[in-house]
């Protein structure tokens, strides 16, 4: 592959030069598996790692020529750079030929980023230094030093459409933008300013209308310039696709493959791309009944996260606290185990909720000691949560053994449920044999300037330690990547697990994720769903999501917006509506991002909604210093609305255990209270029943699984969401005002009580 030339139609790779022809025939079946993630061009870096799409890049023969971008191959022949040219359409196709003339097609999106100017007035120059920090620069102000000119401080940066949080740092002190009234709680007692970029609702909206004589008919609310249509990873030829004004016609290719395949449609007009469509096929025919889908269809997932130790004690013989007087009871083991999860599978608890994916907290052996420190009240902590591993393959004796894990997985599968495992790769406990034998495999605890490299989440995100007893592994070393990816792959090769939730994703180099995904696919013959945990900008989150790395990440930006919208009385729905649109803009209209009701690093939603935890206080301290209960019962309805919202939008809804009935709590560890199955009060029982109803609505409706998504704001505090798939249509309207809402939404007249919501289903 050292020699190559640009032919009339293709860029050829030297090692297979003789097979590159000016007219290539399209052979059936792409070698890319699963669906090829789109490429989103950026203003500064448009490199594509070939391994993300081809585990063995040597199979690549040549690259088709595009009128929209120039293709440049790196010297090591591992990376393609796509340089946009004048006249590039909003979305173009990248065609890659592999051995034997096999066609592999990947959609490529033109960058939509735009330059934004920041300004802080300072006519008298009272400030010595002003910097800018936000998600866009990893919250590291030194990366964005503002310049003083003409009585003000200035800075320019590039942003994609959407909402972006930021702060000024003035002489070392953080402050919101005094000229920007739009703010959002940061979840830690403060607020960030919100920059709004782009115009909401300006994209073409395309819906699938009908199937007529083996043809798909789609319509748009705006006149279209074109559309790229794919059968899995191959672009359909022009004679199978017609675009005429607001109409798209697609001739279905028929039974090309057995079982599941997909039609993917990427429409665009002269201004930009529209929503994309993902249409599942069964033996070549469009799926119109959700009953045809199964647990391998990732878009059908409704996930339930449970902390094993706090869920249920099913085997009292393995119940054992850490014997250390410095650990308060709330920070010690409660006794939950894998048998407890098996018991709740057996008694139908998950099925009664409609859950089809169980996410287990980490179950590997953790330290037996007491570590960490909270000063008031004084306590150390056990490893009850599972995130302090001293082994990467051994099950913690307090949770069970291999036999009970296998039984859990088998029983879940028998009931049509998936099981995914929380896996910790970023760090180990200092008692871990790996660290004892290879201390050089960890990053340095101290930085060159002598300061301690702990909790430096953004400025040293790939090397920082979480605490002094948790060495972060150095994944820039190939031997560490090999060892740790083998350990992770062990869980899906030795157990029939269906996926991973990956802890601390952004703190690990991309090479780890590429290597792990390659090994998982080589060593298993089933779909493995991988979802990561990253707090940060949309760009950082998306950088870990593609065909060769992760399927998704949890959308914490969406969660922050939803907490503000549903829990803060004064907040409108504008920020949340924009967050939904921004998620689809960044991750696709049919993304698999995790939409959560809560998580382990925040106070329980219901406690914010009830006002028992304030947004301007330290929620962790609140959990330690007072007994947090629910003083305002309207919080149950607000939590129900959050559940309904998550179950209406694209992505994978995820219920944090006990949110189905509304457990209160401050931040960790108060948000990890013991799960309760019985003795629910009237409001708790009513909420759990309603959540079950909503979940089953989701999993049984094609519009909610694969439909197009539209968001509207009839009023500032009234939000409507519409999902459409052929004749199936679901409209939800959320009203957080103190008055009933009555009006027309998406062509339907609706009435919604004050502080409530309604769902209308049509088919």
TrEMBL record:
Domain of life: Bacteria
Key words of the record: Lyase
Biological process per Gene Ontology, one example term: carbohydrate metabolic process
Stored SUPFAM superfamilies: (Trans)glycosidases (SSF51445), E set domains (SSF81296)
Gene Ontology molecular function: any one: lyase activity
Pfam families assigned to the protein according to its UniProt record, in alphabetical order: Alpha-amylase, AMPK1_CBM
Ranges of residues in domain Glycosyl hydrolase family 13 catalytic: 305-698
The protein's name in its UniProt record: Alpha-amlyase
Organism: Robertkochia marina
Phylogenetic lineage: Bacteria, Pseudomonadati, Bacteroidota, Flavobacteriia, Flavobacteriales
């Amino acid at each position: 592959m050292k020699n190559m030339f640009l032919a009339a139609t293709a860029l050829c790779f030297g090692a297979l030069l003789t097979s590159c022809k000016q007219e290539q025939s399209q052979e059936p079946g792409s070698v890319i598996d699963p669906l090829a993630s789109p490429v989103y061009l950026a203003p500064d870096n448009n490199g594509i790692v070939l391994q993300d799409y081809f585990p063995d890049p040597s199979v690549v023969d040549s690259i088709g020529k595009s009128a929209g971008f120039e293709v440049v191959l790196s010297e090591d022949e591992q990376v393609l750079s796509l340089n946009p040219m004048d006249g590039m359409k909003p979305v173009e196709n990248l065609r890659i030929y592999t051995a034997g003339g096999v066609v592999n097609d990947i959609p490529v999106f033109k960058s939509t980023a735009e330059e934004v100017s920041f300004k802080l007035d300072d006519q008298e120059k009272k400030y010595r230094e002003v910097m800018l920090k936000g998600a866009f620069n990893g919250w590291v102000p030194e990366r964005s030093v503002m310049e003083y000119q003409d009585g003000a401080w200035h800075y320019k940066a590039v942003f994609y459409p959407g909402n972006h949080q930021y702060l000024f740092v003035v002489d070392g002190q953080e402050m919101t933008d005094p000229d920007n009234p739009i703010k959002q709680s940061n979840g830690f007692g403060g607020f960030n300013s919100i920059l709004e970029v782009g115009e909401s609702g300006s994209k073409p909206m395309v819906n699938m209308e009908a199937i007529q004589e083996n043809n798909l008919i789609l319509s748009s609310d705006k006149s279209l310039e074109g559309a790229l249509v794919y059968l899995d990873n191959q672009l359909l030829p022009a004679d199978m696709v017609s675009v005429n004004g607001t109409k798209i016609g697609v001739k279905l290719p028929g039974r090309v493959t057995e079982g599941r395949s997909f039609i993917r449609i990427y429409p665009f007009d002269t201004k930009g791309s529209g929503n994309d469509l993902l249409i599942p096929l069964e033996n070549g025919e469009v799926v119109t009944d959700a009953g045809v889908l199964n647990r391998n269809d990732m878009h059908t997932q409704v996930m339930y996260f449970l902390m094993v130790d706090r869920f249920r004690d099913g085997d009292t013989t393995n119940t054992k606290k850490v014997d250390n007087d410095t650990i308060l009871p709330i920070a010690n083991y409660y006794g939950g185990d894998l048998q407890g999860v098996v018991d709740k599978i057996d008694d139908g608890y998950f099925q009664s909720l409609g859950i089809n994916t169980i996410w287990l907290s980490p179950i590997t052996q953790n330290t037996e000691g007491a570590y960490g420190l909270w000063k008031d009240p004084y306590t150390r902590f056990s490893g009850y949560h599972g995130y302090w591993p001293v082994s990467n393959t051994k099950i913690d004796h307090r949770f069970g053994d291999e036999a009970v894990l296998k039984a859990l997985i088998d029983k879940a599968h028998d009931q049509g449920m998936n099981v995914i495992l929380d896996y910790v790769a970023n760090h180990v406990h200092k008692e871990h044999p790996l660290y004892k034998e290879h201390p050089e495999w960890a990053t340095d605890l101290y930085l060159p300037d002598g300061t301690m490299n702990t909790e430096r989440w953004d400025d040293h995100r790939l090397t920082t330690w979480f605490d002094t007893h948790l060495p972060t592994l150095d994944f820039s070393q190939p031997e560490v990547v090999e060892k740790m990816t083998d350990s992770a792959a062990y869980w899906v090769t030795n157990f029939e697990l269906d996926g991973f939730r990956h802890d601390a994703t952004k703190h690990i180099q991309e090479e780890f994720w590429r290597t792990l995904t390659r090994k998982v696919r080589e060593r298993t013959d089933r779909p493995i769903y991988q979802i990561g945990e990253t707090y940060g900008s949309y760009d950082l989150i998306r950088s870990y999501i593609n065909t060769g790395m992760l399927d998704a990440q949890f959308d914490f930006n969406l969660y922050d917006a939803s907490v503000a919208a549903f829990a803060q009385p004064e907040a409108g729905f504008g920020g949340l509506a924009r967050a939904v649109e921004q998620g689809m803009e960044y991750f696709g209209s049919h993304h698999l991002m995790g939409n959560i009701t809560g998580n382990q690093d925040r106070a329980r939603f219901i406690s914010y909604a009830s006002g028992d935890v304030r947004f301007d206080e330290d929620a962790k301290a609140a959990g330690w210093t007072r007994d947090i209960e629910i003083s305002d019962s309207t919080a149950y309805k607000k939590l129900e609305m959050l559940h309904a919202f998550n179950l209406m939008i694209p992505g994978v809804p995820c219920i944090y255990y006990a949110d189905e009935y509304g457990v209160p709590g401050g931040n960790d560890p108060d948000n990890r209270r013991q799960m309760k199955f019985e003795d629910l009060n009237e409001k708790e029982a009513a909420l759990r029943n309603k959540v079950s109803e909503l979940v089953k609505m989701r999993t049984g409706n094609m519009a909610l699984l694969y439909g197009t998504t539209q968001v509207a704001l009839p009023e500032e505090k009234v939000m409507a969401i519409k999902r459409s798939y052929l004749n199936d249509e679901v409209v939800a309207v959320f009203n957080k005002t103190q008055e009933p809402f009555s009006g027309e939404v998406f062509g339907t007249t609706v009435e919604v009580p004050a502080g409530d919501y309604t769902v209308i289903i049509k088919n």
